[in-house]
Amino acid sequence: MRKIIHLLLISCLFLNCGTYLLLENQEPNDKTAFQNFVNLTLLDSSIGLVHYWPLDGDLKDRIGGLDLIAVNGTPTPTFDRFGFPGGAYYYDGAGGYHQSSAQGPLFFDGTVSSFTVSAWVKGKFPPGNNGSEFIFVSQGAGLGLQLYAFSAGSCSGILRAFTNNGGSGDVDVGTACGVYPEDVWYHMVFTWDIQTLTGSLYVNNVLVRSGTFGVNRPWAVYSFFQLGRSDLSSQLFQGSVDEVRVYNRVIFPVSSL
């Protein structure tokens, strides 16, 4: 019996040594693969980035110089998605919103290039059924990201992105009704692929809706870029916005986190 136990111990010892050596040899490969993944993600997050508003207590565009200004009031700094104070802006829906200091990106008309709009949002869904309410990212009347409700009774809320040419709608991509609760931070990414005429909406890195559009271009975006408001409605957004990015190409949603 003593010999059997001795043999088992020796076998375990050699097995553990082999496992250790295997893991030791694998570790550099895993580390390299992880570093390559991080590098590719960082690279993807910077290529084509033309505007970036961190909204960390100021209104600076860190990339394109298209700084924002406060209009009809002053949205207040608030806690961001990590709980840090002053890392986002709160819009009370009573008057104050942010607007670019000059014309927003012209390629938002859908005829020039692909693009991506990314933002973090937390807020209320509107009480009524007006499709132009609670738009928190917009440009003119032709582009918007919003918290949307069909009606107070039949729909508790949709996360939606849309475009129109000023008279007729075009892209309309949104989540299923009632899936996402109020007052929770969501990462919304809208992409327009001009090669395939595809509009897509991602929420928290998950594709929720995609389709072929583009029959009603150019979209009516020849105006200011705005946060907390849209030219489509006098009903202002009530909630918080953070980390707004604009790319002149389609990106992987995870790259805009």
Automatic annotation (TrEMBL):
Keywords from the UniProt entry: Disulfide bond, Signal
InterPro entries: ConA-like_dom_sf, LamG-like
Every LamG-like jellyroll fold domain range: 113-254
Matching Gene3D superfamilies: 2.60.120.200
Superkingdom, natural source: Bacteria
Keyword Signal: yes
Protein name, per record: Concanavalin
Keyword Glycosyltransferase among record annotations: no
